[in-house]
Design goal:
It is a single chain. α1 (about 20-30) crosses α8, α3 (about 70-80) packs parallel to α4 (about 105-130) and α4 packs parallel to α5 (about 155-175). This protein has about 260 residues and is an alpha/beta fold. The chain has a 7-stranded parallel sheet with strand order 3-2-1-4-5-6-7, with helices on both faces. Helix content is about 45%, strand content about 15%.
């Protein structure tokens, strides 16, 4: 029997006011979960929480900028009041650019907002998952962990670190019924993709639509992904159906990644 029922579950979704994070919050709420939104813009959070299905579940939000250590620590402290069964780690990618020209601070900043924040939130949530007899940790990363992408030097480096952290964690938490998995979006219609397209267009002196068409042509399905398609994969991994799946990288990329 297909069962995506998340009734009685609490899901904390980071980066949940736009793109993949937003659609993930909607899908988990649709499945019956109480959703805790996390993002840095309070006005956007207020707007999104008002849109979530099943409002009687008591959805709420927490304001935190993942580049601000004090705000991250405040969120970590607040987790004791939320006791999430599902944690979706999702943070906007670092700026594009060659790895050779990347500044040291760019690596430090990305390492903190991606790996360190993921680790802090996970360490805070795991005791409550253990108490509940299981849980789900799902990291939104990138297909670059399987196949580094051109002109995304810092992102390629940091995303790979997150993927290996997650695999190690999956093995450690498996005996407690807590799964840890990575969803790897390919080129997806988000503000991040638009930024990359516009940057490439500026560098080449061509139109953004020309670059977009060129990028879409590289994908076997000949189109970009939709945020809801990535969110649907997250909802599956969060569900009872995925109870024996842990430590995997799941590309959702229209076939673009050339390796298995």
């Amino acid at each position: 029997m297909i069962n995506l029922d998340l009734q009685s579950k609490t899901a904390m979704v980071c980066g949940s006011t736009q793109g993949i994070g937003y659609e993930t919050a909607i899908q988990l709420a649709n499945c019956g979960a109480r959703v805790i939104l996390v993002a840095r813009n309070k006005d956007k959070l207020l707007d999104v929480v008002s849109q979530l299905p099943n409002p009687m579940n008591g959805h709420t939000f927490f304001v935190a900028d993942f580049s601000n250590e004090d705000e991250v620590d405040a969120l970590v402290a607040a987790i004791s009041g939320f006791k999430p069964d599902i944690l979706v780690n999702n943070t906007g990618g670092p700026p594009a650019g060659p790895v050779l020209t990347a500044q040291e601070d760019a690596f430090k900043s990305a390492f903190f907002s991606h790996l360190i924040v993921n680790h802090k939130l996970t360490c805070a949530a795991v005791p409550y998952m253990m108490e509940a007899g299981g849980g789900r940790i799902i990291n939104i990363i990138s297909t670059s962990v399987k196949q580094p992408l051109p002109n995304l030097g810092v992102s390629n480096t940091i995303r790979a670190a997150v993927a290996n952290w997650a695999k190690t964690l999956a093995n450690e938490l498996a005996p407690y019924g807590i799964t840890v998995n990575n969803v790897l979006p390919g080129a997806t219609h988000t503000g991040r993709l638009e930024s990359i397209i516009n940057q490439r267009a500026g560098q080449k002196g061509v139109s953004a639509s020309e670059i977009g068409d060129e990028m879409a042509h590289e994908i076997p399905m000949k189109r970009f992904g939709k945020p809801i398609e990535i969110a649907s994969a997250v909802a599956f991994l969060a569900s009872p159906l995925a109870s024996y799946i842990t430590g995997i990288n799941l590309p959702v990329d229209g076939g673009r990644t050339s390796c298995l």
